[in-house]
Automatic annotation (TrEMBL):
Pfam families: Pribosyltran. GO terms for molecular function: glycosyltransferase activity. SUPFAM superfamilies: PRTase-like (SSF53271). It is an enzyme of class 2 (transferase). It catalyses: IMP + diphosphate = hypoxanthine + 5-phospho-alpha-D-ribose 1-diphosphate; GMP + diphosphate = guanine + 5-phospho-alpha-D-ribose 1-diphosphate. This is Hypoxanthine-guanine phosphoribosyltransferase.
């Protein structure tokens, strides 16, 4: 096995489960209920922030019970590292955002720079409103540049993986929220 895969296996073995699959699924139900109540008549465009937001969006969408369209955006700040740097714009939506109500869906709000940049981008493209939904909001104990409109769970300030969140590109598929031991 190569060195990176060995590290991934070790991180996975030593990680601490913070939120079970059942907890996250219940949080998704609650989030969807709030979105259904608020945005049913908005001709919504859901913007999935890939890669991390794939699972959040994929699990949220079938819970939404009104007509909507979907596109994606890829702004990456961590790029397989465990600390963020500059934002790299890797994919921009092909749908016109002009005049649209947009709901940006991501896995985690950490320092908030990525989501803030995506909100700014949507508004600059002429979106009527750019709302935000994050499955996890990390408790940093300080103000963030953006306050999400819809939040699934508030999570502890550790480096996390699972439900879309990666460790060095891996472990996004873990069925729960796990804290890496290195940063515990
Ligand atoms: O609130 P912030 O501190 O800006 O961090 C949050 C962002 O970081 C992760 O993306 P990442 O940059 O790792 O790209 P990825 O989705 O391709 O993994 C995550 O999916 C969020 O988009
Ligand atoms: O804790 C995290 N885990 C994975 N990806 C992330 N992107 C920002 N914070 C995190």
């Amino acid at each position: 096995m190569n060195r990176l895969l060995e590290e991934i296996r070790l991180v996975e073995q030593q990680a601490l489960l913070l939120h079970s699959e059942a907890e996250v699924e219940a949080a998704l139900d609650r989030m969807a209920e709030r979105i259904n109540r608020t945005l049913a008549d908005s001709d919504l465009l859901v913007l999935c922030v890939i890669n991390g937001g794939i699972i959040a969006a994929g699990k949220l969408l079938p819970r939404l019970d009104f007509p909507l369209t979907v596109d994606s955006i890829h702004a990456s700040r961590y790029r397989n590292a465990t600390s963020g740097s500059d934002i790299h714009w890797l994919y921009k939506p092909t749908t016109s955002l002009a005049g649209r109500s947009v709901l940006i869906v991501d896995d985690i709000l950490d320092e908030g720079h990525t989501l803030q940049a995506i909100v700014d981008y949507c508004l600059a493209q002429g979106a009527r409103q750019a709302l935000t939904a994050v499955l996890f909001d990390k408790q940093l104990g300080r103000e963030k540049p953006v306050k999400p409109d819809f939040v699934g769970l508030s999570v502890a300030n550790h480096y996390l993986f699972g439900y879309g969140m990666d460790y060095k590109g891996y472990l996004r598929n873990a069925p729960g929220v796990y804290a890496c031991k290195e940063v515990l």
